[in-house]
Specification:
The chain is α/β, with parallel strands linked by helices and about 230 residues long. The protein has one domain (about 5-225): Aldolase class I (TIM Barrel), CATH 3.20.20.70. The chain contains 9 helices and 6 strands. The chain has helices at about 25-30, 40-55, 75-85, 105-115, 125-135, 145-155, 170, 175-180, 205-225; strands at about 5-10, 60-65, 90-100, 115-120, 160-165, 185-190. Strands 1-2-3-4-5-6 form a 6-stranded parallel sheet. Strand 3, helix 4 and strand 4 form a beta-alpha-beta unit. Helix 2 packs parallel to helix 3 (about 75-85) and helix 4 (about 105-115) packs across helix 6 (about 145-155). The chain starts with a strand and ends with a helix.
Length: about 230
């Protein structure tokens, strides 16, 4: 019985931030059409319909970017309508969204909580490390705004986790990064991917390995201490 999972980029490469290491920005600059804009609703409906016709037990829709909230909340309300309309086999539906958090407010957080979206929000460790790489188009750091968005998600009881992109600077500071993010409880660490023409040194494999070992050790130690 097939379980289907779809990763969807509903706004192509459109984004309201300009992160220094963004591989997708680099990819978009090296293809015939840099951006394909926002997905049309008839395309969304066709995707949902065909996905639910294929799936038998569960069907997962994961939205990424660019920045997927730029599609607008009405886009995701239509998603829910299409899922309800075309779920003829009554399969389990899971929705998730990976966001930079810049657009998130109480309205978004309430919507995600009410409709059981799993939200991934990107925070790169400490304020200094995050602001070094994750900036607005005019070069301003975004840490305070994104941390506030995470607090809003928590306050609205939305299910969320934090995704941290590990580059060499972050790999060199596992303790600082872990304890900065620990309050968010559910953490993901993924390696920075080099773009086609990136001038930033590639993530050192040994440094990344040591970072994961150290943060896992910190997690097990602090978890055991808190549960005693």
């Amino acid at each position: 019985m097939p379980q289907a999972t779809f990763m969807i980029k509903p706004v192509s490469n459109l984004c309201n931030m300009q992160c220094e290491y963004c591989f997708y920005d680099d990819v978009s600059k090296n293809r015939a059409a840099a951006s394909h804009g926002i997905m049309a609703l008839d395309t969304l409906e066709m995707l949902v319909k065909q996905a639910l016709e294929y799936a038998d037990t569960s069907c997962s829709f994961a939205f990424q970017g660019g920045e997927p909230t730029l599609a607008g909340m009405d886009f995701y309300k239509e998603l829910l309508n299409f899922q309800k309309m075309h779920n003829k086999k009554n399969v389990q539906i899971n929705n998730s969204i990976q966001t930079n958090g810049y657009n998130l407010n109480a309205q978004w957080a309430s919507f995600f909580a009410k409709n059981n979206f799993l939200v991934g929000i990107s925070i790169d460790g400490t304020q200094a490390l995050h602001n070094k790489y994750r900036k607005t188009a005019d070069g301003r750091g975004t840490y305070d705004r994104i941390e506030k968005a995470a607090t809003i998600l928590h306050g609205n009881k939305a299910t969320y986790n934090v995704l941290c992109v590990v580059n060499n600077d972050i790999a060199a500071a596992p303790e600082e990064v872990y304890f900065s993010l620990k309050k968010h409880k559910y953490l993901q660490f993924i390696p920075r991917i080099s773009g086609f023409h990136s001038t930033t040194p590639a993530l050192d494999v040994d440094a990344y390995s040591q970072f994961l070992k150290t943060t896992f050790d910190l997690y097990t130690k602090t978890s055991c201490a808190e549960n005693m």
